[in-house]
Amino acid sequence: MTQKSIAALLLLTLLAACNTIAGAGQDLSAAGHAVANTAEKAGASK
Questions:
Q1: Which end of the chain is more exposed for a tag (fewer CB within 10 A), N or C?
Q2: CA distances from 29 to 6, 13, 18, 38 (A)
Q3: What is the pTM of this model?
């Protein structure tokens, strides 16, 4: 493989990893909001 091919492969791998991490962060945030909303509905105090 040429150096350009290797660089392109590494760049694509990094971009895919960033997308996966961002998606996981959004999922965790949504779960946190769901827990907070459930606690508020149950009457938990802040």
A1: C
A2: 35, 25, 16, 14
A3: 0.52
Distance CA 5, CA 11 (A): 10
Residues in contact with 29: Cβ distance below 8 Å, sequence separation at least 6, in sequence order: none
Nearest to 6 by CA among 17, 14, 19, 21: 14
d(CA 28, CA 32): 6
Q: How far from the centroid of its chain's Cα atoms is residue 45's Cα? A: 29
